[in-house]
Amino acid sequence: MERVPVESQALSSVGYDPAQRVLEVEFSSGEVYRYFNVPENEYVALMEADSFGLYFIENVRKRGYRFHHVG
Question: Where is each KTSC domain found (predicted)?
Answer without folding.
Answer: 7-63
